[in-house]
Amino acid sequence: MTTQHTRARAFRTLHRPSAPLVLANAWDVASARLIEAAGSPAVATTSAGVAWSLGAADGNAIDRERAVDLVARIAAAVDVPVSADIESGFGATAAEVGETVARVIAAGAVGVNIEDAHTDPAFPLRPAAEQAGRIAAAREAADATGVPLFINARTDTYLSGALDPSVRLKETLERARTYLAAGADGIFVPGITDLAEVAALTDGIDAPVNILVGSGAPSVADLARRGAARISLGSSVALSAYAVVRRATEELLTTGTYSGLAGGLEYGELNALMRRSD
């Protein structure tokens, strides 16, 4: 069994409602190594952070080659399992999504996020059957490699604002069943932090449920008690890092002071982390 197989199997076991996998998402090698060094048992990328770091907007605007290259660099830089956020699969067709998944596995990833958000503003959510076809292609491509890839099927039923609140839960549960039948291993529902609804989701979905959190969201302990098996910060860490850039620059240009830099990492600490032999 290869190291990648071992990491893939280990990654699956980390999704436990009683002790959920908590992820501070990375967007480059430095952030991935910091997350690993802090004790995280896995590293997951944030598609938004990756896109911004490469000079592109989030939302399927980044080139697949560049995204896969970034995944390969992160996977080679850490010793823990790596899950890649591949947005909607970097492909117009299900076959192209399968190609992306094969490439991401070859790059060293053991998990992926695939979302049902659509770039067409008139139809912000892909039809569930169409998305199921894309997930099935991802599953087939993964199985062909022999790597037990964890497919985290993201649904934007809450985040997109496309659905009336009265039907969101029902639609989410229906999509979850469809995606799991197509080969997904877990369901990611960003845009929801209400504890009662989280509990309704975890009760109604027979698979690990991933919740997106950030400032003001319920604690890990509270979400764990409602059955969440995976809790992610998503783009929040990258956004906070970029906020430091703006604050420090504005302070420098206006008052000529540097208080916004307080609490930064020591140069030697980060440089030593980046010198670490793989």
TrEMBL record:
Coiled coil: none annotated. Gene3D superfamilies: Phosphoenolpyruvate-binding domains (3.20.20.60). GO terms for molecular function: lyase activity. Signal peptide: none annotated. The keyword Flavoprotein does not apply. Keywords: Lyase, Pyruvate. SUPFAM superfamilies: Phosphoenolpyruvate/pyruvate domain. InterPro entries: ICL/PEPM (IPR039556), Pyrv/PenolPyrv_kinase-like_dom (IPR015813), Pyrv_kinase-like_dom_sf (IPR040442). Pfam families: PEP_mutase (PF13714). The keyword Cell wall biogenesis/degradation does not apply. This is Isocitrate lyase/phosphoenolpyruvate mutase family protein.
